[in-house]
Each structure stands twice: as structure tokens, then as C-alpha cells.
Amino acid sequence: MSLLRASLFTIASLSLLNCVQPESEVNSTDIAAALPTATQVQIKLPQSSASALIGETAEWYRATRSVTQMLNGGTAWVLTVVHTIVQFPVTSRSGDTLTWGPYSNALDPAEWKLDVSQLADGSYHWKMSARSKTQANATFESVIDGNAVAGDAIGQGHGSFSIDFDAAERVNPADNDGEGQFVATYDLPARHLTIDATRLESHNGVLAPITTHYVYNEAANGSGDMLLALHGDTEDAGVLPEDATIHSRWLATGAGRADIRLANGDLAATVTGSECWDTSFGRVYYSDSATFMPTEGSAAACVFATASMP
To answer: Among 48, 78, 141, 300, which residue's Cβ finds the most Cβ atoms within 10 Å?
Structure first.
């Protein structure tokens, strides 16, 4: 993903200045207003620099935080690139479709463009496409495809976008290595984000797909929850795919609870577990059915009294 990211940021920050034409009568400000910013789609997990007061920092809080940081980065760079591009005057216009680009640096093996079309329902379809410069008669292929619906006010819309990493590799195999698909769906007024991703990963000498399903919800007071579900081979022994699920919930204070379930594949039995943390993210309770780690603390200290696993 990082190589694709670097290519797109180069376009957004440097290149389009060299290929713009005067602004058409279409007001691209409306497009910018319909597209969410990286901050608006950001997953806001409570954080603190305070030291844990009881026990070590909760491991599943760490896992929850790591996942949110990764997904924040994945969505942010796409939206930042698109927002940067649409600040420039358009390069060309055809009907209701505005085009920025195409452009590439002299040494780039592919060139990129952004097309934005206003649909009959008032939403905007946007597409980042690329074309190989090393293949004769190459055509543009969609790499990032999205739809944005403006809300009643800026930052109140909804929409989705997808990234095709295999397409990125086809148009530029020198800088990309085909990582599968990434789909994000957002609803800003409801503070809801869903992400689905598929990638191929080598495990025990076998190349197999790993699928990820992520759901994030945030309340007005800063409390929230996230569900992360993985399907793929995660065991060191065997090659059958397992199902791993973690459901984390937290209050606005940062105190929270995570419940896990591991099942199927090469596992002999389903494993469940729970961990709770306080406002300093110190573990106040831990227990799992496989005794991965010894039980610690008291379930009575959990801010959520019961386990929750969809």
C-alpha cells in the first residue's frame, strides 16, 4: 500500500499544477464539500499517556488501538489525495464529468487521472485511474473507485470507496505487488464506518486469502465500539482457515472491555476470552477458556458487566 500511496501523493502535491486549465463553469467546490475529509472519517479511540494504575496495559486495548491506527491511515491517505486534487482547477470537462490529469513524473512507469461525475441523484462518482507508460496501447484502469453523497451540511455526508491493489499492480508492477481489495463505507452523521479487505498471505508455505471485516461506531459523547473479524489460516500448525473475532467497547473516559472468540479451522475447540481496562488502560480483569494467560483481576471491575460477541 505504501508505494501506491507515495505515487498518489506525488500527483496530489506536485503534478497537477503542471497540467491545469482554467476552471470550467462547474463549481468543483461542491465536489470538495461532498467528499469527507480524513479527519471526519477518523476512528477516535480514547488515548492517554498516563501510566497504568492496575496491572499492565491491556493487550487487547493495544490490539484495538493498533487496528484503528492502521485503518485511519488507510482511509486518510486516499481522502487526502482526492481532496488535494479537487482544490486545483479541472484539466478538462465532458458533460457532467470533470477530469484532473492525466499526469506522471518523467520516471514514473504509469500516469494517473481523477474523474468526478455528478449522478442523477445528486451524488458524485469519483475514480482514480492509471495507465501503464511501458505497455503499448495501454488503457486507463480504475484503481480507486468511490461514491460521495453530500449531507445537509459539510461533513454530514455518506458514501464509500474501494481500492483494487491488483489493478494497481497491473498498471505499475514495478511499484506494487497486488494485495487484494479494500472497501470502506462511511456515514458521517451516524459516525459509522465499515471496512472490508481481502489479501493473499503465505502461511506454512500455502498462499491463501485472508478476509477482514471491521465495523466502528462512535457515540456523541465519545464512547464507541469496534468489531474486527478475520477469516484465514492463523495457526502455526495446519492450513485450514480459522475465524477470529474481537469486539471492543469503551466509554468516553477510555475505560473499556474486549471480548474475543477463536473458532473453526485447525482449532480443537472454540476459545473465548475477555479483558477489561480502566481509564488509564491498565488491565483490571483478564480470563480466557484456553488459559493463554492466567486469570487476573476481578470481573466486577469491568465497566461492561457481560461479554458481547455478535
So the answer is: 78
